[in-house]
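Throughout our pipeline, every protein is held as a single compact record rather than as scattered files. The record that follows is passed on verbatim for readers who wish to inspect the format:
___
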Amino acid sequence: DKFAEMHGYSKEELLGMNNRQFTDRENQEKVYKAFNKVYRSGETQKFFDWELIHRDGSKRVVETSVSLIKDKQGDPIGFRGIVQDVTERKTFEQSLKESELRYRAIFEGSGTAMIIIDEHDTITMLNQKFEGMSGYSKDELEGRVNWKEFVDTMDKDRVAGYHEQLKEDERPIPVQYEFVMVDRYGNKKDVLANMNLVPGRRESLVSMQDLTHRKQMEEELKYLSFYDGMTGLYNRNYFEQELERCRDG
């Protein structure tokens, strides 16, 4: 339903359509190259952007992860993927580059959890979405708390390395990474972060998306691919893969 809404067509209309019917030539080539790379390498292509044309003629920026589907003989038979509408996030990032004067209003109005941190990783600004994600208010966090306090112990060094990398690059490019966030109540959340330097400042902008629900769904799908839904026992697919692994060994 979400995929159909994103394109402006019904599910029935989309079934059988080719992506060329809702992309321009430049994006057709971009999508083809990504899928072709997955097909040839067998490796998952994560988080690549492209533009689709909505039924009403407007353009939406989407972020896609795609992997290869194989049959029991290991032959490719299709693709599976996740598509997310990131138009608001992309618009926000572009607006920051074009006009620093307007960034606070866009920052507050964005549908994505966002924070700005200074060169010492102290949170200097956050929006309402981050308040909801973290469980803290602005007054409790702004100018008071180090950003890494929300990062799970196992991820702290890795995340700190990403932030240092962004600061040290001569021509800084956005850094994207996943980490486990711990909120006020000790709940752990799988989060995808995108980090940019704020133009003209020694500060970084971090936008975050909660992937917890998606990760849970992926784990459930993975479980169902190896276990029988009614009995909880291993299914035929599991035994065939194990048999193949033993043969290769």
